[in-house]
Amino acid sequence: MLGKLFKHELKGTSKVMLLLFGIITAITVLAVITLCISPNAGSAISSTILVLYILSLVAIYIVAVVYVCWHFYKTTYSDQGYLTHTLPVGPLALLHSKLLTALLWIVVTTILIALSLFAMLTAATGGAVFSITPEEWDMLMHSWDSENFLPLPWFIVYMFVFAVLAILHFIMMVYAAASVGQLFSNNKLAFSVVAGVLFYFAEQLISVIALLTVLSGFFRDIASAESGIDVVPVSSFTTFLNGSLFVTIAFIVVYYLISAVIIRKHVNLD
After folding, report:
1. Distance in angstroms (rounded) separating the CA atoms of residues 163 and 167
2. In this structure, how many other beta carbons lie within 10 angstroms of the beta carbon of residue 248?
3. Among 221, 103, 251, which Cα is nearest to 171's?
4. DSSP type of residue 171
5. Which of 255, 263, 103, 81 is nearest to 176 (CA)?
6. What tens digit of pLDDT does each residue of 188-247 get?
7. CA nearest 218: which of 243, 242, 235, 241?
8. Phi (first) and psi of residue 198, to 5 degrees
9. Nearest to residue 34, comparing CAs of 117, 127, 124, 114?
10. What pTM does this model have?
11. Rg (Cα) of the chain, in Å, rounded?
12. Cα–Cα dist 185/79, whole Å
């Protein structure tokens, strides 16, 4: 049943998201062609195109995020929620299908924008990114491995997982805020925004405490070093990344539990 709900959610949101993907592709092609025709990065045309390109990508990403979050609220807690909750499926299945759909769309949007930026970088440098020789690549890999706690390929995988979890964390925070806001009889959307703001500030407080804990270990590493150092110790860097990952997962779990409990037992469509 989850698979059917997932397909239904994809179909219901695909028109808007595919349109956004088309716009990303179109502006990337236009920007790349412009840079190829006018390769001088300091020219007025290139500068203008670059500014418009960056602003367009930022706007598209914001629209994509707002759309998937609004779709959840509209189809779950607004008047349209009456139809959604009459489906012969469990409330958690509804939550999971909407969550997976939103996560998929935002991850794909992020990947497309990253590919677009890579295409722009390639055009702006005249393809210099592909001119790295095998010897230079081996030197880069050796330098990275000697100074970092993970080999470069695994670090890329690590950061990709971290990015996906960061996206999931944001979506779950919005879902939890929407779930809390709909508990009120009036001004549900306004209370959802208030809940989101409170969640955000609570997160910042907890994150600052966690960061100070990590920094205390970092300064201990510096104090105990025999000579001055110019880079963050590997152990402290590892602790910082793993700590950030742990805090992100913890927030995801908390927001999921809030959303799950409310959507199962406390839906208020009045």
Report:
1. 6
2. 18
3. 103
4. H
5. 255
6. 889 999 999 999 999 999 888 877 776 665 555 555 554 454 444 555 566 677 778 888
7. 235
8. -65, -40
9. 124
10. 0.84
11. 23
12. 13
Q: How large a percentage of the chain has pLDDT more than 90?
A: 41
Alpha carbons within 13 A on the beta-carbon side of 32: 17
**C-alpha span between 103 and 6 (Å, rounded):** 12
Phi, psi of 125 (to 5 degrees): -100, 5
Tokens of 95: 């939550």
- Name the residue ranges covered by the structural domains of the chain: 1-131, 132-270
The phi and psi torsions of 143 (rounded to 5 degrees) equal -65, -40
Give the tens place of pLDDT for each residue, 232-250: 455 556 667 777 888 899 9
Could you tell me the two tokens for 93?
């299945």
Cα 9 to Cα 73, 81, 96, 164, 244, distances in angstroms: 13, 14, 11, 20, 31
Residue 74 corresponds to which tokens in the numbers above?
Answer: 């509209």
Evaluate whether 190 touches 184 at the Cβ level (below 8 Å).
no
- C-alpha span between 136 and 129 (Å, rounded): 12
Cβ(168)–Cβ(103) below 8 Å? yes
Q: What is the crossing angle of helices 188-224 and 234-265, to 10°?
A: 160
* DSSP assignment string, 200-242: HHHHHHHHHHHHHHHHHHHHHHHHH-SS--SS--HHHHHHHHH
SS3 1: coil
How distant is the alpha carbon of residue 187 from its chain centre? Answer: 28
List the one residue out of 58, 168, 77, 171 whose CA is nearest residue 117: 58
Q: How many CB atoms lie within 10 A of CB 235?
A: 12
Distances (CA, A) of 261 to 28, 102, 103, 133, 188: 43, 20, 20, 56, 18
